[in-house]
Amino acid sequence: MRDFSASGEWLSLNTATVREQWTLPEIIEACARHGIRAICPWRDQVANCGLPIAARLVREHALMLSGYCRGGLFTAHGSKGLKSALDDNYRAVDEACELGSPCLVLVVGGLPGALEGKLEHQDISAARTQVIEGIARLLEYSSACRMPLAIEPLHPMYAADRACINTLEQALDVCDQLNPDGADLGVAVDVYHLWWDPKLKSQIERAGRRRLLAFHICDWLAPTHDLLLDRGMMGDGVIEIRKIRGWMEEAGFSGFCEVEIFSSRNWWRRPGDEVLATCVERLRTSA
Ligand code: ZN
Questions:
Q1: Is 145 within 8 Å of 93 (Cβ atoms)?
Q2: So what's the pLDDT on residue 78?
């Protein structure tokens, strides 16, 4: 297992972590100041500064990407909704290619309409079928572009509105079904979503190097005050992050640890430089 105690060189910053403080160009400058070598940008942040500028800044700063957030949201009502979801995913693949990302992260969608407060139906198994069909269609395009897709299973508390793939086992079953021998489809393991799962260790082993495309870290605060925006800094919560990183590395993962913290009560209110310095420090001590 890699020793992180001396440096933060394997830190990647998911840019949502400081989205309230800075624009993407400002985040890129700040990463250079803090010696952070990789980022995972969000599509809205890229759109705000423009894709060509984002791509140029990444190149100029010799930044690497640990992923691109995000594609997915495949569930929709009617053929028109499905087509527009798919078209948007094709654009996300193109953007990921332009930025030099190693993968496109997929948050697959929940019950159609639930996120917008206009629930279309309650049939979660139908939603899951729609997700698998959507990934299958996208995979034809992304494989041709050589852009791997990383399914991110979300904690079951998001099954209704964000993602009806909720365990690593379920995500890997989809990978095995749609891409049995290839490396075009894998998973993003986020400790916040998966730390509680009794099968986590065995499913990380099952995934192996080929399927383990991204590793997201933060901490689960107890108590948690908000289901979406109260993620903790590594070391402030209950997750055995280093143990899980050990399982990842035993299975062959050797990439960046991507810090992804949505924190409206705490970290989004602090100066960005303090947040980045803390991320680097906690990677060394608590991850
Ligand atoms: Zn994540």
A1: yes
A2: 81
Q: Report cis status (omega within 30 of 0) of the bond before 59.
A: no
Q: Is 72 helix (H, G, I), strand (E, B) or coil?
A: strand
Largest Cα span, the chain: 53
Calculate how far, in angstroms, residue 190's C-alpha sits from the geometric centre of ligand 1: 5
pLDDT level of residue 77 (50, 70, 90 thresholds): confident
- Residue 104 near residue 152, CB atoms below 8 Å: no
Q: Which residues are within 8 A (CB) of 279 and not within 5 positions of it... i.e. 6 or more apart?
A: 8, 11, 13, 17, 36, 233, 234, 259
Distance (Å) from CA 259 to ligand 1 centroid: 9
pLDDT of residue 82: 87
Distance (angstroms) between ligand 1 centre and the Cα of 272 equals 20
Distance 177 CA to ligand 1 centre (A): 23
